[in-house]
Amino acid sequence: MPIIAKEAFENHYKIRIEFKLSASLREEAVEEDFLHEISGRILASYDDDENQEEAGALHASFVQFHEAMKRGIDTSRMGDGISGEVSEYWECLFDLNTDNLKPDLRVEYETVGCNLLIIDFIEVYPKFRGHSIGLAAAQRVVDVFGVGCALVAATPYPLQFTPAFSSDSDKLQRLQAPKYSKNEAIRKLQAYWSRVGFMPYGRSGIYLRNANSTADIIDSFGGVNLLE
After folding, report:
1. Is the full-model pTM beyond 0.90?
2. What are the structural domain ranges in the chain?
3. Fold of 6-210
């Protein structure tokens, strides 16, 4: 399927994200009540056509460590007990003795509280690549859900090498990933995320940014070529 020409995209297409988030209502809160999974459909419409075409998908997690602590739930119960993905970030970013973010992170990012917004993945379908939709979507996720978060975190890792995709020929066919080696694909994806303000945290593979900063590179849709 051909990629949409830049002029046609800029003059005729409108892009939006439809987010879905759920939260439970209980009198006595439990750990799971402070982990909110966010899914999103990236939708494209042509001119004034009311029909919308799916242009991509995303998933993120909003983890309310700070609010959980105020309810008497320590971060270890949140970080180590409800999600393997969250656990990886908790083990790397938190001081296990203080139940707070590590001191170097608090200083470098001037954090308030310890809530995390984790962007798990953003996938843009082949037809719509080449217009920096992925970068704009990442920034929009931060704009909408980053309020009250100390940090935004992500682990740039190409979808084609994840277990969910690598063993599923239908998903790989739909993905149509560029033919890069694993290391080259990781390097390119890390450089791609850095364009929206994410910086590596040591050699952990985790990339971080302040939730309150706005990447000034997202002035308009541009042209990047790796699953964006």
Report:
1. no
2. 6-210
3. Aminopeptidase (3.40.630)
